[in-house]
């Protein structure tokens, strides 16, 4: 039984949960499979708008969640097919373009609210406690799924593709299948996160899914440690809460996220998880202190 939560606490928990889901979903594509995506907010937005449309058609919230994920992964499949012919910088530019196309498309569609935004999204009907419970359950489920994938043969395949696609092909690994799988799974989860966001805010505008959002999600993955499950979760929680407790951060959020990206890549490419690993290794290599040694 969840304790009674105020509106602010509910808002904070939901937004943190959505960002953790988004960071974990991108971590499957970028962290585990090595496919750089700069347009992840587009899949987030597709799920959100799909949920709004389905909700207005009378589809229950718990049914909308997987359906919005399916809509997100359909777009992910298309982008994944495009990724088969490009890699590295070209893939990053391609996914960034998808993000701009999505925002531009929504802004011209009156049935999606265009620039004025889409409102009148129905209530989820679960109450605050029920909705928070669903959000937390989704976070746990996605984290467990990510951990399972990382330790499965699928995860080993992702890691091989991320290390060297050409060598993977030489070893007989179906690189195309692994890349498509990563995009489909990651974008499905982003679509689910989008549906959760839509039912929470009950109002969508194109700007909520712009390039800055994609950079924020990428920052959570890189700062936490590319490929690390717990590191990405910690970074997503920290980078979401930081602007809440230090208001000046919110005014310069994208700038600060950019600085964090640069500092992380320069000082600790492995992110938070890599830094913790280095500290643990250094401590393990320290010679034991003799019994008579002075402190």
Model description:
It contains 13 helices and no strands. The chain has 295 residues and is mainly alpha-helical. It has one domain: ABC transporter involved in vitamin B12 uptake, BtuC, CATH 1.10.3470. Mean pLDDT is 87; it is low at 290-295.
Keywords:
295 residues; mainly alpha; ABC transporter involved in vitamin B12 uptake, BtuC; 13 helices; globular
Q: Give a short account of the largest sheet.
A: none
Number of helices: 13
What's the alpha carbon Rg, rounded to whole Å? Answer: 20 Å
CATH fold category name: ABC transporter involved in vitamin B12 uptake, BtuC
CATH class categorisation = Mainly Alpha
Estimate the global geometry from the Cα principal axes. globular
For the termini, the CA-CA separation is 49 Å
Can you name the CATH architecture?
Orthogonal Bundle
Number of domains: 1
Mean pLDDT: 87
Low-confidence stretches: 290-295
Structural class of the secondary elements? Answer: mainly alpha
Q: In percent, how helical is the residue content?
A: over 70%
By DSSP, the count of extended strands is 0
């Amino acid at each position: 039984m969840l304790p009674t939560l105020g509106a602010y606490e509910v808002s904070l928990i939901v937004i943190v949960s959505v960002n953790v889901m988004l960071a974990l979903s991108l971590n499957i594509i970028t962290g585990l499979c090595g496919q750089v995506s700069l347009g992840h907010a587009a899949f987030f937005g597709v799920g959100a708008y799909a949920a709004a449309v389905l909700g207005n058609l009378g589809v229950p919230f718990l049914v909308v969640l997987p359906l919005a994920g399916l809509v997100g992964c359909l777009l992910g499949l298309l982008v994944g097919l495009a990724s088969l012919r490009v890699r590295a910088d070209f893939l990053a530019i391609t996914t960034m373009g998808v993000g701009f196309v999505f925002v531009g498309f929504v802004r011209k569609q009156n049935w999606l609210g265009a620039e004025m935004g889409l409102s009148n999204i129905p209530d989820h009907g679960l109450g605050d406690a029920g909705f928070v419970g669903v959000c937390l359950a989704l976070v746990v489920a996605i984290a467990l799924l990510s951990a399972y994938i990382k330790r499965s043969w699928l995860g080993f395949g992702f890691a091989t593709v991320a290390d060297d696609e050409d060598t993977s092909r030489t070893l007989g690994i179906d690189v195309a299948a692994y890349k498509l799988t990563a995009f489909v799974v990651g974008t499905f989860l982003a679509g689910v996160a989008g549906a959760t966001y839509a039912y929470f805010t009950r109002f969508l505008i194109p700007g909520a899914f712009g390039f800055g959002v994609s950079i924020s999600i990428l920052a959570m993955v890189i700062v936490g440690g590319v490929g690390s499950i717990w590191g990405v979760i910690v970074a997503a929680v920290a980078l979401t809460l930081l602007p809440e407790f230090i208001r000046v951060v919110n005014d310069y959020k994208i700038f600060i996220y950019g600085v964090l990206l640069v500092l992380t890549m320069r000082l600790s490419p492995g992110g938070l998880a890599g830094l913790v690993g280095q500290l643990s290794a250094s401590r393990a290599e320290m010679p034991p202190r003799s019994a008579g040694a002075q402190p």
